[in-house]
Write a structure and sequence with these properties.
The protein has helices spanning 16-33, 50-55, 64-76, 80-93, 97-105, 109-117, 122-136, 141-146, 151-156, 163-179, 181-190, 192-199, 205-219, 224-227, 229-233, 237-244, 253-269, 273-278, 281-297, 304-319, 327-331, 335-352, 357-368, 372-380, 384-388, 395-409, 413-416, 424-431, 437-453, 455-463, 466-471, 480-492. The protein has 493 residues and is mainly α. The protein is elongated and about 95 Å long. Helix 4 (80-93) runs parallel beside helix 7, helix 22 packs antiparallel against helix 23 and helix 23 runs parallel beside helix 26 (395-409). Mean pLDDT is 86; it is low at 1-13, 30-38 and 49-56.
Length: 493
């Protein structure tokens, strides 16, 4: 996940500017690596009627003849109950991929289903929409593309009055968007962005959560940066998205998770992050971070990690866009509040979801990379020891912890005086024993900075058999130049 620059020949003289140049190159590589794997998925709504549940019937695979019979009954049946029952049976069969293939091969089947979708009888319309929803869950793009005649109607129904029906239409659209570029090409001129912008004003949380899902699938399309995200940013969607992320009693966790991921995909596209910052994205997300930390302290942590992850990613990536000196002002927060809240969340993640620790550390890295004030907050809150305690968690976590400590050390002698004397040297002797090249390499960078600004630390390092720890890496191609440079620095002090 963390693709970093490979080692290359270096001069033995490692001054502050050389170290800073290396670290800026590594920061650029890290930022590039944050274009995380997408979270494309599909969602299936199944709410069987009591009669279906009691019958315990297993949906059967339907052939073309049976599909034709059910469609005819639904279209021409004499009683509404009979017509509705035919669509319920068809819906059950459409749970099977074989039936889905048979359905799209049958001439006129989609035309008939769309006709039922536009019926003036609400129950038939609902069952036809449920059949389309089953089709939308197919993993075959041909099935999704067969649903193209229905998309304009699904969009139209987003302005309806039934929240349940709107929710169903949204999830169906979201599923179709995942599977087919042809569907996305058709939806854009049909007005999906304005339709979603109107729908986001709904008072129903179920509708908003479904809308967030649909929008997130749209934003993850490969063509999104060029063809979709500019339209989204030009609409009222960002304003309402940020409003739904405002902390407070009205915050709905499920809705907030969906729109936090939407915001993450927009930010990662780098289409116009300056616009989001001017609209208060940093302030909103910063306040939400504080609110999440307070929730952890109150032990209100049910599913909290689902929201923590996208919020941290959004903040981390926005920080690479903003002028670091103004970050505190843009967040409308004091530096210490941000850092203290982040460490509360790091402790929470350590207990609940250690695999997400790197998200918080990446944020801390971006906070401290160019900001003496945030580095001062780390020191004034006595957070060096808590950081060092995270080193054993994993190699990825170790590299990020060491990178943050390099950010602090790079600020000069006054900052390094808080790093040594202390437990840092013994921790670095442990990380130098690692077999991971990146962990060792980052340890060497930190030691080089420490020795430059605190020459006495080099003597302490030598007394603790530091040269012996370095010797084991002398023959490693990616490390040997840095090892030699550090040996020379240590012996000259």
């Amino acid at each position: 996940m963390w693709n970093r620059r490979q080692g290359r020949p270096r001069t033995l003289g490692c001054g502050v500017e050389e170290l800073r140049r290396r670290r800026r190159e590594r920061e650029a590589a890290l930022r590039k690596a944050r274009r995380e794997q997408q979270l494309v998925s599909k969602r299936l709504l199944r709410d069987d009627t009591p009669e279906e549940a009691e019958g315990g019937r297993v949906a059967m695979i339907l052939g073309e003849v049976e599909i034709q019979q059910f469609l005819c009954s639904a279209q021409r049946g004499t009683e509404e109950k009979e017509r509705e029952g035919a669509l319920i049976s068809l819906r059950g069969g459409l749970q099977h991929p074989e039936t889905q293939q048979n359905f799209i091969r049958l001439e006129g089947s989609m035309r008939t289903l769309v006709g039922l979708l536009t019926s003036n009888q609400a129950l038939l319309q609902l069952e036809a929409a449920r059949c389309l929803h089953e089709l939308s869950h197919s993993e075959q793009s041909a099935v999704a593309e067969a649903c193209l005649p229905a998309t304009s109607y699904l969009l139209t129904y987003l302005s309806g009055h039934s929240s349940d029906f709107i929710e169903l239409c949204l999830y169906t659209l979201g599923n179709l968007i995942v599977e087919s570029e042809a569907v996305r090409r058709q939806l854009l001129p049909q007005g999906i962005v304005p339709a979603l912008a109107a729908c986001i004003q709904s008072p129903h949380s179920t509708v908003l959560e479904a809308l967030g899902y649909t929008l997130s699938q749209l934003l993850q399309a490969k063509e999104a940066p060029e063809k979709i995200i500019p339209s989204v940013l030009g609409s009222s969607l960002p304003q309402y998205m940020l409003g739904l992320l405002q902390p407070g009693p009205k915050l709905n966790p499920g809705v907030a998770v969906e729109f936090a991921w939407c915001l993450h995909y927009i930010i990662c596209s780098q289409v116009n992050n300056a616009l989001l910052i001017t609209r208060g994205a940093l302030s909103t997300l910063g306040l939400l971070l504080l609110d999440l930390a307070r929730a952890v302290q109150r032990s209100e942590d049910a599913g909290l990690e689902l929201l923590v992850c996208p919020v941290l990613r959004c903040l981390s990536n926005l920080l690479t866009e903003a002028a670091v000196e103004a970050v505190g002002e843009q967040m409308q927060l004091r530096d210490e509040r941000v850092v203290a809240s982040l460490f509360i969340l790091l402790q929470f993640l350590l207990q609940k979801q250690p695999s997400l620790l790197h998200e918080g550390l990446w944020f801390l890295n971006n906070l401290t990379a160019n900001s003496p004030s945030f580095c001062t907050s780390v020191l004034s809150l006595d957070l060096i020891v808590p950081l060092l305690q995270l080193l054993p968690v994993s190699n990825v976590v170790s590299v990020l912890v060491l990178t943050v400590l390099c950010n602090v050390a790079e600020k000069g002698p006054a900052y390094c005086s808080h790093l040594w004397p202390g437990p840092l040297l013994s921790s670095l002797l442990d990380t130098l024993a690692s077999s991971d090249t990146e962990v060792v390499g980052q340890s060497l960078e930190l030691l080089q900075l420490l020795f430059l600004y605190r020459p006495e630390a080099a003597q302490d390092f030598l007394q603790q058999s530091g040269l012996l720890a370095l010797e084991r890496h002398e023959k490693e191609t990616q490390l040997q130049d840095r090892v030699r440079a550090l040996q020379r620095t240590a012996l000259m002090r």
